[in-house]
Recover the amino acids of this structure.
């Protein structure tokens, strides 16, 4: 019964979305206030309906209602409760419902917090948002309906894929979807502004928090996915340049560019049409990502169970929305008059350069991702584009970005004197080189990678401190400290995020340069040396888990005779899904991870053991988390909070 | 997204990539084999190199690479041999020949164009304000000070 109600709510949500698409839009065209006023309540109702619908599906999963096809295919009574819940979005249909729900929730947020938006702009934003909703709800209902029943329900389900029964991956999709779908908000604002024919500083201020929210969730989502791959795949890789990863990375890069250009719109009323274009493209890449991931067009050799019909539909959505928005852009963009003037040496110029670098970096990922397809269709050439290409083609732009970032962030708006602005950075540069030299002296290896990573990382972090130094003005230290505490949170956000970028860069370089790997067979009781650690295979035994069987090894790690950790890597078998998984065991540390994996038993009774020392691995994700914290800080900046409640303030305190 | 990832992993299985029995006794040769393996595609996997993959075929290819190296092939000869047998699809680094040139030069070219356009834009936005003007930062500082 509840499932049918959920299904009904879903259909109703589609109708409400259609209403929300047409009525406020027409009202805005005709300037009919009552029609425009339909937008916010419709957005709220749509969100409530989809929340209920999602709740109904979750209920079906939690109660293991195997008469629902989706539940039968993706759940099992023995599965732990956490994974029954996360199993809701661990499949195509459920994840699309989550996608639609988040889309509607964003619309509702605009309805709730958009009090200071002009009525007409708000009506148009909600209408555009609803049009995206209509497209995806149709997609969901007509090609991937999660509520379909089975005529003869099975006794038990087919289980969620064991690899998904993991906290890292369980929460990876919601973050990613908030990111992908959050960019639809920037898109809606951009299209509404194009219809309106007006972009001003206020628009920049409205569009930025949505982009920020989307971006910081993408950051967390990507970091979670990467971290999961690191500990779950059994050899500690953290990034594979896989089409699926690239699909999330492209919107992240473009959103990062958009974040920066929206500041220029807000503060200086320049870069308007470019910012609009970025807002459109950012969501475009989200759509392309959804297409890549769900159509299976790029999975080549193996025809996975991806439905071509779905692919065609998603391609249709992408083409219609991008085609429509870009056409509108071509017609209207020239009306965006830039006001702000600035000299060639200024923060504006630095942000333009930032945008060029991020946009080109996105393009590298894009062309590398689709090239196999293009080459096969257009040139009849079957090629692979793998990590070596991306490493070579993408990295230079990131290095350039990292080199220029501290310079850009200390430049004042409008007009800068290079010599004077850069003065505080000289010390940062000196310290960065000192850090690189230190690394160079102490490392035993021969690569330049680690010193270069240390140089860039330290340069970014020190540059942030120089930024702080400049922002707090002149005078005694006490005055500086108190001024630092009163800096706008957006400034703190910027500094924290930039420092996080430095931490990630250093982490990647250090891990790649200094990783030690050891693969061998060991008898129980054997001790051998990996790096500066003594590895002992103490025992291997069979263990039974709640829904799996496991071969667990006990491995002791010691350094200079002192025990560091006892790790228990497993190799599991999930009988219901008929699938084996490798559970690496990791001793996490600030300066290194110790990472061990147990393999198969060899003919002579020994075991294959793989052990790694992974220096600074955690810095990669720590940097990403710091970046997203920067995003959160920036999101709580006074100007957004004040703007959100502006009307109330104006009434309460008329004197201000 | 997950589905695809998972299917890809499901193919991989639980064993791990380079097995102990594959490793060559000569550390120099082994190092070369590892480096080569990182640039070769496991043909039945998604974007995985034979160095990372647990698939049977990846193991066969790894053994093949090592065999050739032991027989005295240079790195280039090994690659040429594999391309001869499996086509250029086996290379994770696409060759910069023919149409593939587009792939390699597209980003640098776009970067130069972007720089050019940006430069033109920035020049076009140059102001002629007197150098004595307060910068925005100074203005906001001033506003902050006068408010106190």
């Amino acid at each position: 019964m509840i499932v049918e109600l959920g299904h009904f709510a879903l259909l109703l949500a589609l109708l409400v979305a259609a209403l929300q698409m047409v009525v406020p839009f027409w009202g805005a065209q005709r300037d009919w206030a009552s029609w425009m006023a339909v937008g916010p309540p419709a957005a709220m109702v749509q969100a409530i309906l989809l929340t209920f619908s999602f709740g109904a599906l979750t209920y079906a999963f939690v109660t293991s209602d195997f008469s629902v096809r989706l539940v039968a295919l993706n759940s099992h009574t023995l599965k732990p409760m956490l994974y029954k819940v996360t199993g809701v979005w661990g499949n195509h249909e459920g994840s699309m419902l989550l996608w639609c729900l988040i889309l509607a929730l964003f619309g509702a947020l605009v309805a709730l917090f958009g009090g200071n938006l002009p009525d007409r702009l708000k009506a148009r934003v909600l209408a555009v948002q609803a049009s995206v909703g209509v497209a995806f709800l149709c997609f969901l209902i007509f090609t991937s309906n999660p509520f379909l029943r089975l005529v003869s329900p099975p006794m038990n389900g087919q289980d969620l894929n064991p690899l998904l029964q993991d906290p890292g991956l369980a929460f990876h999709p919601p973050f990613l979807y908030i990111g992908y779908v959050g960019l639809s908000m920037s898109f809606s604002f951009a299209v509404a502004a194009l219809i309106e024919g007006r972009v001003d500083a206020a628009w920049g201020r409205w569009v930025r928090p949505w982009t920020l929210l989307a971006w910081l969730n993408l950051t967390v989502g990507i970091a979670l996915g990467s971290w999961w791959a690191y500990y779950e795949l059994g050899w500690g890789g953290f990034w594979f340049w896989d089409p699926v990863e690239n699909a999330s990375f492209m919107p992240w890069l473009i959103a990062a560019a958009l974040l920066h250009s929206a500041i220029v719109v807000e503060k200086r009323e320049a870069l308007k049409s470019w910012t609009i274009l970025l807002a459109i493209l950012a969501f475009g890449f989200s759509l392309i990502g959804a297409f890549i991931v769900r159509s299976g067009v790029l999975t080549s050799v193996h025809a996975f169970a991806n439905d071509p019909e779905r692919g065609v539909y998603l391609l249709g959505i992408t083409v219609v929305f991008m085609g429509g928005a870009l056409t509108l852009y071509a017609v209207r963009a020239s009306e965006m008059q830039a006001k702000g003037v600035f000299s060639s040496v200024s923060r504006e110029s630095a942000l333009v350069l930032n945008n060029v670098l991020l946009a080109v970096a996105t393009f590298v990922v894009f062309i590398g991702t689709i090239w196999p397809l293009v080459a096969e269709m257009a040139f009849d050439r079957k090629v692979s584009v793998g990590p070596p290409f991306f490493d070579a083609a993408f990295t230079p732009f990131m290095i350039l970005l990292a080199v220029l970032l501290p310079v850009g962030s200390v430049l004042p708006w409008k007009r800068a004197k290079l010599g004077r602005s850069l003065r505080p950075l000289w010390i940062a540069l000196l310290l960065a080189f000192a850090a690189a030299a230190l690394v160079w002296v102490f490392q035993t290896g021969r690569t330049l990678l680690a010193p270069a990573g240390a140089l860039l990382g330290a340069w970014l972090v020190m540059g942030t401190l120089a930024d702080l130094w400049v922002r707090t003005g002149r005078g005694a230290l006490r005055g500086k400290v108190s001024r630092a505490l009163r800096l706008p949170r957006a400034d703190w956000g910027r500094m924290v995020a930039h420092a996080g970028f430095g931490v990630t860069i250093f982490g990647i370089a250090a891990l790649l340069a200094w990783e030690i790997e050891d693969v061998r067979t060991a008898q129980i009781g054997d001790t051998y040396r990996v790096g500066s650690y003594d590895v002992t295979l103490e025992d291997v035994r069979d263990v039974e888990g709640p829904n799996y069987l496991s071969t667990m090894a006990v491995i002791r790690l010691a350094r200079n005779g002192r025990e560091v950790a006892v790790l228990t890597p497993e190799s599991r078998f999930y009988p219901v899904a008929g699938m084996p998984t490798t559970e690496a065991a990791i001793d996490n540390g600030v300066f290194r991870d110790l990472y061990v994996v147990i393999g198969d038993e060899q003919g002579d009774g020994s075991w294959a053991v793989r052990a790694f020392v992974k220096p600074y691995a955690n810095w990669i994700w720590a940097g990403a988390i710091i970046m997203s914290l920067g995003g959160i800080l920036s999101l709580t900046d006074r100007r957004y909070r004040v703007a959100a409640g502006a009307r109330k303030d104006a009434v309460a305190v008329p004197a201000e | 997204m997950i589905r695809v990832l998972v299917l890809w992993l499901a193919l991989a299985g639980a064993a791990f990539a380079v097995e102990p029995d594959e490793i060559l006794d000569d550390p120099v040769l082994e190092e070369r084999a590892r480096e080569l393996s990182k640039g070769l595609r496991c043909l039945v996997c998604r974007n995985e190199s034979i160095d990372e993959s647990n698939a049977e075929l990846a193991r066969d290819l790894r053994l093949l690479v090592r065999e050739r190296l032991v027989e005295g092939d240079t790195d280039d000869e090994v690659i040429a041999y594999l391309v001869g047998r499996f086509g250029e699809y086996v290379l994770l680094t696409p060759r910069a020949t023919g149409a593939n040139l587009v792939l390699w030069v597209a980003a640098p070219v776009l970067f130069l164009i972007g720089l050019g356009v940006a430069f033109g834009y920035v020049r076009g936005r140059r102001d002629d304000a007197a150098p004595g003007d307060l910068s925005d930062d100074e203005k906001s500082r001033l506003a902050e000070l006068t408010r106190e």
